[in-house]
Amino acid sequence: QGLARGEGLALLPATRAMELRKQDYHMERPLLNQEHLEELGHWGSAPRTRQWRTWLQCSRARAHALLLQRLPILVWLPRYPVRDWLLGDLLSGLSVAIMQLPQGLAYALLAGLPPVFGLYSSFYPVFIYFLFGTSRHISVGTFAVMSVMVGSVTESLAPQALNDSTINETARDAARVQVASTLSVLVGLFQVGLGLVHFGFVVTYLSEPLVRGYTTAAAVQVFVSQLKYVFELHLSSHSGPLSLIYTVLEVCWKLPDSKVGTMVTAAVAGVVLVLVKLLNDKLQQQLPMPIPGELLTLIGATSISYGMDLKHRFKVSVVGNIPTGLVSPVAPNAQLFSKLMGSAFTIALVGFAIAISLGKIFALRHSYRVDSNQELVALGLSNLIGGIFRCFPVSCSMSRSLVQESTGGNSQVAGAVSSFFILLIIVKLGNSSMTFLAAIVIVNLKGMLRQLSDICSLWKANRADLLIWLVTFIATILLNLDLGLVAAVIFSLLLVVVRTQRPHYSILGQVPDTDIYRDVAEYSEAKEVPGVKVFRSSATVYFANAEFYSDALKQRCGVDVDLLISQKKKLLKKQEQLKLKQLQKEKKLQKQATSSKDTSVSINVNTSLEDMSNNVEDCKVMVSPGDKMEDATASGQEDSKAPDVSTLKALGLPQPDFHSLILDLSALSFVDTVCLKSLKNIFRDFREIEVEVYMAACHSPVVSQLEAGHFFDASVTKKHLFASVHDAVTFALQHPRPVPDSPVSVSRDLWPAKLFFFC
């Protein structure tokens, strides 16, 4: 037959014959439970790696590796391909600097600070990240979300002056700069500390829907905060929950007081910026670098503001003269640490989440690796050193990062070029209109506001992620940026718990002619094995869902296990009561018979001695020890021949239509004490209704945890745990559990059994 098959394959085309040979799959192995699997595979616990020992080792190689890890520039700069990358990095750095200049001025106003501090924040942190960062494409510097978070803190700790005197404005600005720089130092300390203890994984708790919903809500916050510049309104300072709602209501209330000149200026600037951006998108392939719309608008706004004297003729607010030169470093105010601790930690997490998410996107696109812990350290040092030089907290900008990549940037040399260009530009710009800067901020929110379309895409893709997005957005709008983030993280974690509490439970059936078992509700050809139930959960079993697991198991099996056990116990209790009553009745009759014999002996006193002796001998014969033993033996034989009355069949109760239950535990990633107790109870309850329970497909860590929790004992051994579901099903079919009234004993030896797989 094999020769004929080989000749038949030879007559077929080569590709078709190869496909048939691949499909001709055959394997034979012994049926394996956990004991035999451990013996066959020589199982042993994996050796524990104590990484902390390597951290404490001191050597020259260790010091050199640590230096290269903490200063990545020493790794990539000596290998920098000057001919291939330098021109692209120069053009990219120039493009980013041209874009970063107006954004720095505008985002400083967004943070409630004088514009020049936006330029400082565009220079110091960028250069520090050039030395310590691992991403080649992100553009570190001022960012709208970070600026509005800083602005909420500065306005709450250094509120708006009660009058418009210059002294109060100067004192207010100085106080806000001190708050912002101290906040930046605290943010840097948090980020550096988390990075050094390898806590970069904390950002994994900020899922992508959460980050996108949060940044969209922050964009709305930024948009509302710029309305006072667009309409030239004097608004009260609001902070805390519902501050955004109060600000919108106040804007609507004071809208009739807005100045027409300011509104026209903002509209013209916004239209120009939008047209330039559309032109850049359309001519992206033809232009060597994007048209610097923000810079051109800023230059035009400065010229128009100075030439037409907008401040005095049309009452348009202007930035004023920007001081030249750099500032000397200043120590942070330690007295503010306690007030800024919570906000600093929130800003540190948000800034790192935005930076690492963009960094990983670019790293995946250009095939290199980003170290999340080193990114924390680099971003933290940027904020720490920047705070000493009066910068406010920064992160990376999405729009500038895209420009840096699209204009040919290949490394952080582009960032260094942009920072030096900003250093040269810190000169007198003077008299630029705040309305133009507000227009720059609003137009640059376009990318984040586009994320509102996530609602439609997530509705189709994943409703749970949509719920996280909506809750994050609404919580951030209503509770402000700091409390909104906390509420969003708590909700997303609770949603994970709820989703694991209610996983998908299924009864599995065998796909014909395979060893594969699938949900019978989803696969029409998958059929349940007669006499065997296979149950699976899609999530691990732990304290939050162990009770749901047991309830779903009993429900899917189609047997009311608890009711059956209670009925069985009631009937057995009745039987015991009847037996007890019968024994009491027999004892009573025996006592009565004994008392009647005693009475007859006492009455016949005059009976002759010979008759009495005869009666006594007759009595001795009747109660001889031999007769007692024969009666006991006879009663024992009758009891052995009598069927066991404790079985469901003997009690007249319905029997389950299956004799074996198999728990597919392949989804378990860990077990806790509640899970162990739940599994023990499942074994106990189903054995009460004469169903044997087996487990299958446990991973090695779970088996180790079962052993550590003393799960295996005389009643549940490793012979009840099988390597696969098919092993367990095969064993259950070959060894159905004998009911108590069956005199047949079944051997539990598994090695003679064989498994055959054909495909």
TrEMBL record:
Protein's name in the database: Solute carrier family 26 member 6
Q: Which Gene3D superfamilies match?
A: STAS domain (3.30.750.24)
Q: Name one GO biological process term.
A: intestinal absorption
Q: Where is the STAS domain?
A: 522-732
Cross-referenced NCBIfam families? sulP
- Entry-linked SUPFAM superfamilies: SpoIIaa-like
Q: Which family does the UniProt entry place this protein in?
A: Belongs to the SLC26A/SulP transporter (TC 2.A.53) family.
